[in-house]
């Protein structure tokens, strides 16, 4: 009888330990904005702009450390000549802000604010609504950018 009680105690102990949560594996979930995004479309006044092939090669890479690496078509002239710049970004309360410390005036960084429309694991859509030089853009000048995640 003692052996049966001991065996039952061991079995119950094994069952309890196998059902406990595993806190050794922290969540590896990342912010959906982290990654490399390729431009898909730009809309202004409900009209989709026709993008040149060079436009379609532009990317934004959002990093965990708050850096935004922009790969963009310089001067928008043919042939495609691209440039890369690293600036800062922050995402708070549905507003994605790009912060370029080298383009500011009077020691204040240039900031563009964008309202997030869609942000998930595959699609980023935002509306460019204001900057710290000109303030709120008129509704008919607010462009909507759509990006597709590629990495």
UniProtKB/TrEMBL annotation:
The keyword Signal applies. PROSITE patterns: PROKAR_LIPOPROTEIN (PS51257). It comes from the Bacteria. The keyword Signal applies. Residues 1-23 form the signal peptide. Keywords: Signal. InterPro entries: Lipocalin-like. Residues 33-126 form the Lipocalin-like domain. This is Lipocalin-like domain-containing protein.
């Amino acid at each position: 009888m003692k052996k049966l009680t001991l065996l039952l105690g061991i079995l119950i102990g094994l069952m309890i330990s196998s059902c406990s949560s595993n806190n050794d594996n922290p969540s590896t979930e990342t912010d959906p904005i982290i990654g490399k995004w390729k431009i898909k479309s730009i809309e202004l006044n409900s009209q989709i702009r026709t993008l040149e092939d060079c436009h379609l090669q532009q990317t934004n890479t959002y990093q965990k450390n708050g850096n935004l690496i922009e790969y963009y078509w310089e001067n928008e002239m043919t042939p495609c000549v691209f440039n890369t710049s690293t600036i800062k970004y922050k995402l708070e309360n549905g507003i994605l802000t790009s912060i370029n410390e080298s383009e500011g005036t009077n020691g204040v960084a240039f900031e563009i604010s964008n309202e997030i429309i869609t942000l998930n694991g595959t699609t980023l859509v935002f509306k460019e609504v204001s900057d710290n030089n000109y303030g709120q853009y008129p509704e008919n000048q607010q462009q909507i950018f759509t990006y597709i995640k590629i990495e």
